[in-house]
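Case study.
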Amino acid sequence: MRVGVLGAGGRVGREVCRAVADAPDLELVAAVDPGMAGIDLRQVAGIDAPGLQVASTIDELVRAEAEVAVDFTVAPAALANLRWCAQHGVHAVVGTTGIPDEAVEELRGRFEQSSANCVLAANFAIGAALMTRFCELAAPFMDGVEIIELHHDGKRDAPSGTALQTAARVAAAREAAGLGWPPDPTEDLVLPGARGGRAPGGIRVHAVRLPGLVAHQEVVFGAVGQSLTIRHDAYDRSSFMPGVLLAVRQVASRPGLTLGLGPLLGF
Amino acid sequence: MRVGVLGAGGRVGREVCRAVADAPDLELVAAVDPGMAGIDLRQVAGIDAPGLQVASTIDELVRAEAEVAVDFTVAPAALANLRWCAQHGVHAVVGTTGIPDEAVEELRGRFEQSSANCVLAANFAIGAALMTRFCELAAPFMDGVEIIELHHDGKRDAPSGTALQTAARVAAAREAAGLGWPPDPTEDLVLPGARGGRAPGGIRVHAVRLPGLVAHQEVVFGAVGQSLTIRHDAYDRSSFMPGVLLAVRQVASRPGLTLGLGPLLGF
Amino acid sequence: MRVGVLGAGGRVGREVCRAVADAPDLELVAAVDPGMAGIDLRQVAGIDAPGLQVASTIDELVRAEAEVAVDFTVAPAALANLRWCAQHGVHAVVGTTGIPDEAVEELRGRFEQSSANCVLAANFAIGAALMTRFCELAAPFMDGVEIIELHHDGKRDAPSGTALQTAARVAAAREAAGLGWPPDPTEDLVLPGARGGRAPGGIRVHAVRLPGLVAHQEVVFGAVGQSLTIRHDAYDRSSFMPGVLLAVRQVASRPGLTLGLGPLLGF
Amino acid sequence: MRVGVLGAGGRVGREVCRAVADAPDLELVAAVDPGMAGIDLRQVAGIDAPGLQVASTIDELVRAEAEVAVDFTVAPAALANLRWCAQHGVHAVVGTTGIPDEAVEELRGRFEQSSANCVLAANFAIGAALMTRFCELAAPFMDGVEIIELHHDGKRDAPSGTALQTAARVAAAREAAGLGWPPDPTEDLVLPGARGGRAPGGIRVHAVRLPGLVAHQEVVFGAVGQSLTIRHDAYDRSSFMPGVLLAVRQVASRPGLTLGLGPLLGF
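After joint prediction, the assembly is written out as follows.
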């Protein structure tokens, strides 16, 4: 399968280039990054794809006959890239975050009418997808739940997209089970904000930011006499790669737009 | 629903008596314990079931017209009790541990031919059942896994029954996914035993025993650049009660022998 | 040493009565509780102190010739009790929370002029005192720190007194080391409160409330490429007893008012 | 201060080169690595030290007038390097592991008679040094303790050197407090090794090896009704750098051989 990478010069993009180049069943045929055109990725990132240079425009995908494009760019660029992919019949695997809901719906329509498919996920770490799924499954059986996410101090948004998504899915599962909002006993709040932020659906979310940390999330469920904790730790951007490769290999057989890794994992 | 408790004088038994007496849809009609016959449970354990005394033999269940018996005794007593239940058409909910596999199979046969059913679980904490299930679901997607269980220093067996069961189910899930044994890199073992015990199926299990702890288990999965941790903490025997009551309410509609809480939780 | 317990009918008070009665070097000579006068503690709480009844007023301490009073009541009652102790020359060990700072200063003056001494601590769990001390020691060497406390859903104040005290001592240690406020990178706060409450001194504190939990605190420090986590779990009110007995045994040799368990542990 | 790095071509060595080059008060003047002589570190590792090349022999330190040598090599090479440093009056900061105790004693003698000093530590992460110290301080006050260390599946020795050192220091602290061996209640060991390895001094140590993990250690103390957990997570080799730079800056003022980071941190 012939793969092109959009945002190839970025930190995740380089990692994707490396992972694709290393996979025996995939071929890295195009690397696109406007700001780094002409760069020899082999030299700067040790990628073993002879002769590959970074091109500056997405049209490179046509020239290189790419079947799948992997996009790790920024939201506005990704939106333009994905419209292009739908139009040109190139499958897309997208890890770029911050694409607004209404743009996602527009893309759904475009890929439903295209010969190409799209897999879009906020977090390509398979362990994070399992965590979210397990939280959904546990929600109906446990009396209460709160989410703690912990990230490095370079992360400026809080809470993380993964935490918000977990909260949404847990809230939906609680509602489907007729559980309503988890009770909040706190009356005497000495420090404003100490009880965290309340996500839509009522789940409390706490965001920790510390130097040294990478990307971690802990979901704590409570019930009579017990607690159940589900935690994911990502130590490295490499944690995304197995999920990205899984999506690259499956995207051709998943018509339309697939949201999240869940369906690719069988749930 | 009329409920009798076997092992009513024990620590878990008393807690079961209390939970049944407190449940509006259940009635505590018999309390059996050979060593404590004639005791007023109301006085020693604050149980609100007027006139109830602890009887010494299981035949009390007949006199009291119990529909369900809950057994928290010891393995040999439980085996005799369960044969009696199958014979007398009284449903059984059993949390007694240490019943050998071949005795479980014998009981399966007896309950299949009885009008009564049986639910048998090593751990009635709903959170523990969720943990085990999630481990089974995660196993095919993660590269390695080890189990750490931590208990109070009064527990003499190691590892715990729950840890062994988790290991067995994770191993089965890995095998079904064609994963084989998790790799073990350790060559230079300075302290014998440091890498834990190897359960059937190859999973490493580590057992911690410390004063102050109650009953805890942590299952750690690893994959490229990440880990996924599923942890259950039981702080109190009360953690079993929701699971016991769930089983009491469902046992009449689950023909034959049901193993574990899983099927009652819908998986 | 002859010991009286104030608030003897409360949940912690009963536990203290039991611990004192069980200690070979201590004698439980008085149990005071206005609401429960005349109650036989032996019967309701299994306390082995023959003939001991619950009296309704603190004057019982005189009659019983108590040398030390242990107070687990509520703030206003404790304040009156402690004034009485200072006046009557009875040493005091106090675990009642919520006594205002200015009242503590008043008591310091009274005990400095009394033949009796006082040990006052918000948390008598020795492990919690160690946690707080270690946080203070770690603070100068780590770049950032946040506090997560987790309690059962019956706790109405947030954050906990222990969390606030930890935050204050960590902030003082950072300031003494010239570290200033920990940096906070968050700009885009999707949910108000998600980044927790900011304690005086700048430390972020997050409070989780869930059914089933007991009393837990986790302090996470971050520095280049690493984190250091110090966690205390109290599973039971019994966790206070070793600290209470330690204070009872040492109070006579600690002139004036001693704040916290630290000095009794040698730091 | 002029610094040379021995083992400059290795993974930690490169990181040290980078950290030294980036520190405004330090100058990277020599990089030694037999296997990589002539390599331009600037190109392969982005190190900004103009004109610096990797030399093949330690004599380069003389030519470059290095005041401090940092050694991250392998035990036999390090031993030769350190003898050379003691002889030539170059201070040494050593993170190479596996140097036998008797060789350490030999080096102690050599540096005591040299104008140069040596700081040798098995783990340069400041958080790990704090963890070990806190364990030592907690040991006398807690009833029991076990150590769990978790590392990536490329680590072949078990348990880790840090775990063994922690066990030794905790055992010494317990013995000094007259506590004797922690009790072990386990009688019925279903899986050999499940209770971990017993370090000299009696502490149980459990070693987990999983793909994806980096370097983690958790020390769990138990006492009546509570537990205290001290955990260090190293996510990256960068976690060593602050400790290495601290040692480089202090080594000139620490006569003889200093073992561990503790003394540099003030304990």
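Observations recorded in class. The longest strand of chain B covers residues 215-223. The CA atoms of residues 147 and 219 of chain B lie 5 Å apart. We will return to this complex in the next lecture.
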